[in-house]
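This part of the workshop introduces the protein records we will be handling. Each record describes a single protein and holds just a pair of labelled lines. Instead of coordinates, the fold is spelled out as a row of discrete tokens. To make this concrete, we reproduce a full record directly below:
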Amino acid sequence: MAHQEFDRFAINMDPLSSRDNKKRIEQDHVPIDQKTKKLTGSAARVMEELTERIQAARRLGRPVIVAYGAHAIKNGLALVFIQLMERGWVTHLATNGAGVIHDWEFAFQGKSCEDVGAMVEQGRFGNWEETGFNINLAFNVGAYEGRGYGESVGAMIENQGLQIPSRQELQAVVDQSLASDPQQAAAAADLAYVVDAFDLPPGKLEVSYPWKKFSVQAAAFRLGVPSTGHPMIGHDIIYNHPMNHCASLGRAAQRDFLIYANGVSQLDGGVYISIGSAVMSPMIFEKSLSIAQNLAIQRGERIKNHYIVVNDLAESRWDWSQGEPPEDDPAYYLRYNKTFSRMGGAMNYLQADNREFLLTLLQALGPRAV
């Protein structure tokens, strides 16, 4: 029995300029020299240990991976993330699909964050032409070029646009590589579908990004730092647009998961920081650590000397160094803490606003990693 699919080509897409936004990056960003509130008690102790662990990890050439939810971008932390990369303190960033979208919208128009309730009532939530068209096209082109999810968007912003292959070039790639490299042939065929469906002319598709300096994705691409995106199908507004082609998106996201997993495989002696991500960060970490541990054990080794800090606003009175709380304790249902407490190494929870947490960390680490 064939089930009917929703026709996204029938949706009225509105120009992004017609949307009211809650955040403006010029006024809402966090300056890197902004004065911070002094952390106290256990938060201060965790911050001190985290700073020392990162400094030690970088002296030894070990990775420092930071995974974050979209609120870190919405809260204007882009310049702080960029400084952590530029100074060599952070070696890998990971975020969810919404984190990539807000980063792109800030770079494109200097503002982001719509009124979801009002827009759903009007049947307009997420139906924004430029956001859906450009981000999805970046994945379609990026998958063909062998880029990951985050890198595809970062390259588009940094390069001020995308290079669209001709229909003839794509057909030739399909014909020539089907036997030797069927995945590349499939990526070319998917992009050929997009080129046909949207009648895209070959050559450089210019897109201006006046606020590029606030883009974490662009900075990561420019600096050669992995910035991986970890989406879930249907979770983000870009799925509303007919340019969305999940085969291409899946190729880019698969590449990023494997890049991320490779980073986790090197985490012995390194540091992992999870900021405000209740689902994405703990879920991809536990799978990545499991497969990385599998290979390490085959080599007669183990990944065990890693240090994890989880930052969020929710209160947690449980001492996670003592293992999991019982099921009748509310702390048991803080999924991210429960997951990370099972991941070996050492784990601490630091309750704080993500702006205070990340800015305090940057200022404590100092000018540059050794």
User: Anything to note?
Assistant: The first helix runs from residue 25 to 28. The longest strand covers residues 307-312. The chain has a mean pLDDT of 95. The radius of gyration is 21 Å.
